[in-house]
Amino acid sequence: MSWLGVNIPLASNKKNAAAPKKKNPFANKNKLFIRILAWILVLMMIITGVYTALYFFISTVFAADASLPDLKIAVGLLYGDNVDVAFKTTTTNGYIIGTATIEKYKKTFTPLWSTTEANVITIVCDRNNGKKSNTYFFSDTSVAVGEYHLQIDTVYKDAQTMAKDMAVIDAALSDKGIYSIPSYINGEYRIRVGNWGTKKEAETALEKYGSVFKGKKVTIVGASATGVSMVATSTAKILFEYDCGKTSFLALDAIDDADGTPAYLSTPSGNIYDGIFVYRRYKTSTKDGIELINVVSLEDYVAGVLPYEISNSWPLECQKTFAIAARTYVIQNMGKYWSYGFNVDSTANSQVYRGIARVNSNVRAAVAATAGQVLTYNGSLAAVYYSSSTGGCTAGTYYVWGSSGYSWLASKSTPWEDYLNHTNAFWQTEVSPSELSEYLISRGYTTIKSDIASITINETAGEESSYVYKVTVVDTQGNKVTITRCDKVKSAFSKYLNSANFVVGKGSVDYTEYTALLPPDSLLEYEYPEGNGERERIFSTSKLFGVLTDFGQYLGSWLNGISVITAEGNRIAPKSGNMTVLTAESQNPIYAVSKLDGKRYDLSNLTITSTKYAKNKENFIFVGKGWGHGVGLSQYGTYDLAMMGIDYKTILTSYCPGTSLSNFANVVSWQWW
Question: Is 105 in the same domain as 125?
Fold first, then answer.
């Protein structure tokens, strides 16, 4: 047996500790030896208890800030109908065994016990389990871990007192092939002894060994719908039993190295985690297994997201940007998976989180440099979303999900993204009219009855975005369907699209691509040409501005929405109330100059138009940019900005205008904690 990280052999492991089968002149000496040994064990347990207390109260988590609340995140790693009947966990030095509670904004972990007896353990359901090649499964015929136990009715006030009785019991049972099991049942320390597959076997054992318990009342306990057992994977020895219904749950923490170097918990998939593992029994009429939740500090959660959402080798300013994005997202979504009993899951449905295996100094530096910082708008948390790439522009939340009120997530041009050279960010697909018809029908668009005749893009996600907001599909019989909203468009054609940022044609399609990459507008200065054509400077102090065309049409616009469309289709927007209008005779282009390096960009020649041809001229061809929903940050676009030497604050405001950074302690209601 062990207690709080120190391996302590129980008297049950001593060959001379069993009561003699015949009269022995040294019997009294043996009894005295057992008593002395038991008291030595208790003293050692008290000493190691102090060790654990110190461990529990002074252990620190990376990037902790004493000025910030100790916010913990509960991440569902395995849950619901995806549970396994048993779950294996590995660490290096052994385990702190505890009881945990999980509330939406508050989590607790209280150490109960400790073991160094096995580095690889398996949590199994409290029922009969078989074992083959260190894998556990439910079995009533080949039982390795039985569901029936003897339980001493004594309730122990603490672990040390329980350990004292366990030492005596194990000394007496050392040659019987059974052992005592430390247990925590309904919030109380209990001792259980042995495990059997049937109640009859347990009754026989009680009759046979009952005298060992020296007058203590002993009962037989069976399987529970909420109980779990911690077993040494290789030997099937039960190291701890836990059953507190649904009020609290078994939890494990890794025992650190003797020199204080942190130790971690790992899963069979090879992922390594900080924080604690919480194991919950999930039992329905059709499923029984172990749910796994990782409870971890906010900053360690952020560190565990970065290397799996972006590369840990990307520039530091890119890491900082996504540290803030990940932190903001999880704080805003603490209730997203609360119906399952935790805050977020570990997949792209929330944010991809797989622990610390890929966390390096680059990631840690970014998390530490931005500790506690979140994105805000008008003093409140600002919803922040991101996708792999957006393809030179983004799509506002209204156009993608029908959500309004997110002005910082409006559609905007992002001409710095090098989508032509990023994975899956510039793509084309080809599909026959018949295949496309069958696919759309399978997606629920049953208005379609025959081969597709045409696809028309009716509307995009605003003037600065090429994301398709509305598209009409017509079949050869004249049946048509109009699909509205970027997410629904992407879903309808999901087999052929990486994003809703596309153009489509039959046989061929024209598309644009950049000739140069521009830094954010805040880092540009504009040069307006002089001479070579009539030139008129118009200044307006009113918000309404009008242009009279050659045809006598009066075009009006709010001042902050004025733009000029060039002959090539480029849209140029002024940055103030001053606007210069050049006549058609002018030969001088407008230039933009980068404040970073002085590089000059010809705004009249930023894009070119090319044509893609289908292999079969009867087929439809899609040409698209970006990968994902297109709202908010682009991961690859952020990389491109960081490679330009742009800092994380400018990156964030370039994608999310009007936002600022705040410490989350200043914008979150503290009644949560």
Answer: yes
Domain count across the chain: 3
Look up residue 415 and give its amino acid.
P
Average pLDDT of the segment spanning 111-124:
98
pLDDT at res. 385:
96
**What domain range includes position 412?**
385-518+610-655
State the residue for tokens 């619901």.
Answer: 80
Kindly give, in sequence order, each residue whose CB lies less than 8 Å from that of residue 454, ignoring residues fewer than 6 positions away: 473, 474, 506
pLDDT value for 585: 45
Strand order in the sheet with 238-243: 218-221, 148-156, 188-196, 180-185, 238-243, 228-232, 120-125, 86-90, 265-266, 272-273
Question: Does any domain span residue 369?
Answer: no
Query: What is the tens place of the pLDDT at every residue in 293-331?
Result: 999 999 999 999 999 999 999 999 999 999 999 999 999
Do 443 and 579 belong together in one domain? Answer: no
Confidence of residue 138 (pLDDT cuts 50, 70, 90): very high
pLDDT of residue 127: 96
DSSP codes of every residue in 567-616? TTS-EE--SSSEEEEE-TT--PPPEEEETTT--EEEGGGSEEEEEEE-SS
Residue 501 tokens, joined: 């940022």
Question: Would the pLDDT of 45 be above 60?
Answer: no
Tokens for 499, please give them. Answer: 């994003």
Q: Please report the pLDDT score of residue 532 as a whole number.
A: 41
583 shares a domain with 451: no
Instruction: Say yes or no: 170 and 226 in one domain.
Output: yes
End of a domain among 231, 255, 279?
255
DSSP structural state of residue 269: T
- The chain-wide mean pLDDT, for the chain, equals 86
Asked whether residue 389 is domain-assigned, the answer is: yes
Q: Same domain for 105 and 190?
A: yes
501 with 533, same domain: the answer is no
Task: Write down the pTM of the prediction.
Answer: 0.81
User: Angle at which helices 648-655 and 635-643 pack, to 10 degrees?
Assistant: 140
Residue 558 sits in the same domain as residue 615: no
Residues 6+ apart with CB under 8 A from 177: none
Give residue 590's pLDDT: 86
Same domain, 555 and 496: no
- Whether the per-residue pLDDT at 272 is higher than 70: the answer is yes
**Arithmetic mean of pLDDT, 376-385:** 95
CA gap 49, 271 in Å, rounded: 30
Residue 126 lies in a domain: yes
Q: Cα 563 to chain center, whole Å?
A: 41
Query: Helical H runs in 461-510?
Result: 486-492
Secondary structure string (H, E, C) spanning 182-245: EEEECCEEEEEEEEECCHHHHHHHHHHHHHHHCCCCEEEECCCCCCEEEEECCCCCEEEEEECC
Domain membership of residue 599 (yes or no) is: no
